[in-house]
Write a structure and sequence with these properties.
Endonuclease III, domain 1; alpha+beta; 4Fe-4S; 15 helices; 7 strands; elongated; 2 domains; 4-stranded mixed sheet; single chain
Length: 354
């Protein structure tokens, strides 16, 4: 049962029946309080696509504060610049962002733009949707932000806003729930100011209509919101249980100071990236543990163990595994995902390992 102190007054106006007034209220607020981001300062579809792909699984602060967005666009400013780039180069440029399938899809998208669209970014929503790795949200984002087309978008923030705006108690992540939320998003999108509207409703979900402790009193569209119990919405399916995984790896250096690395195989989550050589628990049982850290990835909580190992004591690798020796300088140029990069930085800075 909802806390009576968190029950808000009934809406005075239905959002659909009073759509022009809703548009005016939200856009007025956004014009005065909306945040400024690099991708909001451009209508270049490639720059917008890159931002949307980066932000799918990465927080805005990470993308901006660590320079990922600016650095990536400096290296790959347009589709043709990445279409024929070496995979290791694009993986290196994406290093630290995780979910590396995103950048592979981005390269495939660029190739299709170059070959099928004469290096011109398609403006038709359907053609954008046909690009590799581009789903309904990303297609709508590019169409509305780059071309101001009245295409709806739905992310977690917008789904939360709409579930409260329409007092929707169905599961927003179910098929039926998604269908309903997208339908409402389509009804609400501004026909002439889609760019501003989609940015505004998304930012509303990031600010006043946040997941916890929504600020209904200050909300610019509170009078159009049908729910009286915002803290209970949105409804979602039960979260998947986190799986605990142990990963056993080696730090092995030869007489020249080179480090042995293992390339992750085709089909692996981080295909093409390099990591510390992995072995099973039995193979490392007799070795000295020198590092331990935890990291999370898609419903998994991984404990990474690193063991010191001399070349002459190196346990045999699994059949088909690719392993190579690299100098410390060469490691800097390799695409290495964050958990292993952090381990290497720590271990190789230790005077005992030099």
């Amino acid at each position: 049962m909802a806390d009576s102190s968190k029950i808000k007054p009934l809406a005075l106006r239905h959002p659909i029946d009073n759509l022009p007034e809703l548009h005016t209220a939200l856009l007025k607020w956004f014009a005065s309080e909306g945040k400024t981001y690099p991708w909001r300062e451009t209508t270049d579809p490639w720059s917008i696509l890159v931002s949307e792909i980066m932000l799918q699984q990465t927080q805005i602060a990470t993308v901006l504060d660590r320079g990922y967005y600016a650095n990536f666009l400096a290296r790959f400013p347009d589709p043709i610049s990445i279409a024929d780039a070496d995979e290791e180069e694009i993986l290196k440029a994406w290093e630290g962002l995780g979910y590396y399938r995103r950048v592979r899809n981005l390269q495939n998208t660029a190739r299709q733009i170059v070959t099928s669209h004469d290096n011109q970014f398609p403006t038709d929503h359907g053609q954008i949707l046909d690009l590799p790795g581009v789903g309904p949200y990303t297609a709508g984002a590019v169409a509305s932000f780059a071309f101001n087309q009245p295409e709806p978008i739905v992310d977690g923030n917008i789904a939360r806003v709409l579930s409260r705006l329409f007092d929707f108690h169905g599961e927003v992540d179910s098929s039926a729930g998604q269908k309903q939320i997208w339908a409402w998003a389509g009804q609400l999108v501004h026909s002439k100011k889609a760019r501003q509207w989609n940015s505004a409703i998304m930012e509303l979900g990031q600010t006043y209509c946040s997941a916890k402790n929504p600020n209904c009193d200050g909300c610019p569209v509170w009078e159009f919101c049908l729910t009286r119990t915002p803290d209970l919405l949105p409804s979602k399916k039960a979260a998947k249980k986190t799986v605990l995984v142990d990963e056993f790896t080696l730090l092995c250096r030869d007489q020249f100071g080179r480090v042995l690395m293992q390339q992750q195989a085709s089909g692996a989550r981080r295909e093409g990236f390099w990591k510390l050589p992995e072995r099973d628990a039995e193979a490392v049982a007799h070795l000295h543990s020198c590092y331990r850290a935890k990291y999370g990835i898609t419903h998994h909580r991984v404990t990474l163990y690193v063991y010191q190992c001399a070349p002459e004591s190196l346990p045999e690798a699994a059949k088909g595994t690719k392993e190579s020796w690299f100098t410390v300088d060469e490691l800097e140029a390799l695409p290495i995902s964050s958990p292993y990069r952090k381990a290497l930085d720590k271990l190789l800075s230790d005077s005992l390992m030099l």
